[in-house]
User: Which sequence fits this backbone?
């Protein structure tokens, strides 16, 4: 898929990995719609890049449908969809204070897994109506998992379950959509310098980065955006989950 002059949507695009992806796609000539629940960050970013912003909670299918429809109105239709929306929760499955609370588990599943599914199904549905390019391709969907899908640590049961679900959707989704020329891939990032880690003291952040085999630092969100673009451009990448983690394998704690 050629990024230049293509229409894209980045859900969760107001900050962190999503913002970096918005900037990467925009810098390569794509017309990008930024969809995010955080309007305070999303609107200024849209104004800066002269890109459309739409408020969107991925748990609300109507909002996802509207955001995708707005992006798909552009000439040529929606060609690229990247979902970076997600959050975390720390709690053990059970402990001295009793079992894991159900509500936060459900909430993490709703945002990270069901939210990703909502973006994927509406984006793919919009892409089916596109005219295929010379190679028969109509669109590319990129989802975001985490290395926690494979190396879940103590207290990450909700987060790991949600991200494991995203990994599990990738291949069947790619197979479902192959007949339409729509590719589906997932990025599983490791430790990245995102707003989630920005709240930690600098010493703690440095220690986390030092635990990465190479390069011995936290990932730069721009490196995520770069990989998202490379996935879009490489037509043989399909049904794959790619770890982006500097060879990190997380210990139990």
Assistant:
């Amino acid at each position: 898929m050629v990024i230049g002059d293509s229409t894209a949507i980045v859900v969760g695009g107001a900050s962190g990995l999503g913002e970096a992806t918005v900037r990467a796609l925009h810098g390569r000539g794509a017309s990008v719609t930024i969809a995010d629940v955080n309007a305070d960050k999303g609107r200024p970013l849209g104004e800066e890049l002269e890109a459309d912003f739409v408020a969107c909670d991925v748990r609300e299918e109507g909002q996802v449908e509207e955001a995708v429809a707005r992006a798909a109105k552009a000439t040529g239709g929606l060609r690229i969809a990247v979902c970076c929306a997600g959050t975390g929760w720390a709690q053990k499955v059970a402990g001295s204070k009793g079992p894991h609370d159900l509500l936060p588990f459900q909430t993490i599943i709703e945002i990270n897994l069901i939210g990703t599914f909502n973006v994927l199904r509406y984006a793919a549905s919009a892409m089916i109506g596109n005219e295929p390019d010379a190679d028969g391709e109509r669109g590319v969907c990129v989802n975001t998992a985490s290395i926690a899908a494979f190396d879940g640590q103590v207290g990450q049961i909700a987060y790991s379950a949600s991200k494991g679900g995203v990994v599990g959707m990738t291949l069947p989704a790619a197979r479902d959509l192959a007949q339409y020329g729509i590719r589906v891939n997932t990025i599983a990032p490791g430790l990245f310098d995102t707003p989630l880690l920005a709240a930690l003291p600098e010493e703690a952040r440095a220690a986390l980065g030092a635990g990465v085999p190479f390069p011995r630092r936290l990932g730069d969100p721009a490196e995520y955006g770069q990989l998202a673009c490379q996935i879009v451009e490489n037509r043989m990448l399909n049904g794959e989950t790619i770890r982006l983690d500097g060879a990190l394998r997380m210990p139990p704690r």
